[in-house]
Design brief:
It contains nine helices and eight strands. The protein is of the alpha/beta class. It has one domain (8-218): Aldolase class I (TIM Barrel), CATH 3.20.20.70. Helix 2 (53-60) packs parallel to helix 3 (80-86). It is globular and about 40 Å long. The structure holds D-xylitol-5-phosphate (DX5) and zinc ion.
């Protein structure tokens, strides 16, 4: 099945070198990529901590990549402004915590950013159905968020298909992103189920031939087989 959108690879900074973040981001730029995925964790919604707005702002001063900021926070509504001010281009918020999702998405727009909604593996597709016309991106987590390097959850594929079907039926244009355990093989499976935006941390930063990895994800038809 052909995707509605151009395929995008968004390397996840979480798997970069935290003592040389700029070096890791330069790697992303060097391969001609446009997007950088930045994971923000609060130690409550997920059992880990990562970056804050100051780090995003510092990177913004040095890079013009599209910053895809994934907020894994209990109270994301309190943090959209700091991350928008820091230079996020897209801010994604989870559906699971209790807050006004619609209002927060509008706030993200008012701040001049694209907006996304995220579902954990245990959260059904139906939970975001009513928001699909209000977002630029739907992120389907393919691992339980919190840590890089986990195994892809194949049981998320039907959820992708369901959301892709709604997108087609309603003629919507949001991106459908996957995050967690994405490598060449699992990206292919996700693409077949409608995904067009692929977050890869470990697989990107550990790839021996990054050029081939990028080509296989973003231009699968033209990619050379990887031996
Ligand atoms: C997980 C994060 C991911 C993470 C993915 O909670 O949301 O973005 O960096 O890492 P990999 O690609 O290693 O599974
Ligand atoms: Zn993420």
């Amino acid at each position: 099945m052909h995707s509605l959108q151009q395929n995008v690879l968004a390397p996840s900074l979480l798997a970069g070198d935290h003592s040389h973040l700029a070096r890791s981001v330069r790697d992303v730029e060097a391969y001609g990529l446009q997007w950088l995925h930045i994971d923000i964790m609060d130690g409550h919604f997920v059992p880990n901590l990562t970056f804050g707005p100051a780090t995003v702002a510092a990177l913004r001063n040095n890079f013009s990549l599209f910053f895809d900021v994934h907020l894994m926070l209990d109270n994301p509504h309190n943090y959209v402004k700091p991350f928008a001010d820091a230079g996020a281009d897209l801010i994604s918020i989870h559906i699971e915590p209790e807050y006004d999702h619609g209002e927060t998405l509008r706030h993200i727009s008012d701040l001049g950013c694209r907006k996304g909604i995220v579902l954990n593996p245990g959260t059904p597709a139906d939970s975001v159905e009513g928001l699909l016309d209000a977002v630029d991106l739907v992120l389907v987590m393919t691992v339980q968020p919190g840590f890089g390097g986990q195994s892809f959850r194949e049981d998320m594929l039907p959820k992708l298909s369901r959301i892709d079907t709604w997108r087609r039926e309603r003629n919507l244009r949001f991106r459908l992103e996957v995050d967690g355990g994405i490598n060449l093989q699992t990206a292919g499976q996700c693409r077949e189920h409608g995904a067009d935006t692929f977050v890869a941390g470990t697989a990107f930063f550990n790839a021996e031939d990054k050029q081939a990895f990028v080509r296989s994800i973003e231009s699968p038809g033209s990619a050379q087989p990887l031996g």
